[in-house]
Structure formats: C-alpha cells, structure tokens
What does this fold into?
Amino acid sequence: MKEVLPQVKLLPYRYKRYGLWVLIIGIPVMALLSMALLSVGLIADRQNFFTEWSYPMVYYPIVIGLALLNFSEEKEEDEMVQHLRYQAFMTGVYYLIVGILMLPLFTNVIRLLEGKAMGMPDVGGMLGALSLLLFYTYIYFRIRLHQIRKALEADEE
Amino acid sequence: MKNNIKVERAKKDMTQEQLAEALCVSRQTINAIEKNKYLPSTLLALKMSNLFGLTVNELFILEEGD
It folds into this structure.
C-alpha cells in the first residue's frame, strides 16, 4: 500500500556507529584543528576566535553526532520503532520548549539568591538549542525502546 | 482496547517469532501489541486479522472509555 504522507528517509544502521565516533572524537579533533589554524596564523584575532568560534567548535560535532544517531535506522526497524521515533521527537520538542522557557526563571532565582543582578542566560544559541533537542529526543527514544525490550525479556523468563 | 492475539496465536500453534516473521515486524512489536503497550497501524491490524482468518473487530475489541 502506498503511503499518502511522505516519509523521512533514514540512514542505514551503520551510521549509528559513525554518529558515536563523531561524538567521541569530534570535539578533540575540532580543538586540534582550531589550534593548528591559530598556530599557522590563518586566524589573526585570537581573542575573537575563542569568543565567536568556540560554540561551533564544540557544538558541531555534538549536533552532527546526535543527528546521525537520531536519523539512522535500528537493527530491527518496523512500524513500532517508527512510532516511538515520532513520539520521541514530539517529547524532545516539548522538553526543549519547557527547558528554554524555564531556564531564565531558574537562573534568575539563583542569581537573586546570590545577590546578583538579573540577566538572560545563554544556552549556546541556535546550536545549543539544537543539541538539546537532539539529546532529549535520542534519550527518550532509547529509554522507550529499552522498556519495550525489557518487557520482552521479562516475558521470556 | 484489548486483543485476542495471544489466544489466536495459541490456536494456530504459532510462536511470537513466527507471527512476527509472517507479518514482517519484530518480535518486540508482537509482544508489545499483545501486552497492549502498542496499538498497531490499520495495515498491520488487517494483515494480522487476515492471517488468523478473522475480522479486525474479532481480533481487537474496544473497551468502555476507548
């Protein structure tokens, strides 16, 4: 039967492994690359580099790694796994919205208790928010899948 | 919603694995459906009822509050 709604094409299962590698070695590699660029003088303004470029340096490997984990198939991909994935994205968006809205409240309460002036906290901008979304989504998906597999194992005992 | 999948599977002397294979889904999906932790799509419900020679209404039963 032909699907009426277009489906998001997922990457093959092996991309999960690539995602993990990007997460593990991405930040050190980006840091080394940045140091190399600085040492050969391709980036003149050191101070500017560490304030403006530090976010992409840290967040790009995180975002790419988590995106590969989120958008690659499971070993046994079927309609329930797809359903869990959609549910995970909904939950991820929900927690991101709640988290971003609540963050200023919590940080300002702490600031006020410490006697400091109020201010807007920084979550790392667009890349930080994207990392959080992908992180929440992946964690929720893994937890739900784990619960379902646990129920199957319990049934076998 | 409750279902008679476990009963019908037993009547046909089928394991969860065999049913999963016949429907092209994983065993964890069959287990989750039997335990009412996951509601199958219309397509899967139809395939399942065809396999057991029943109607969808005979396999899946609506409960009060559904």
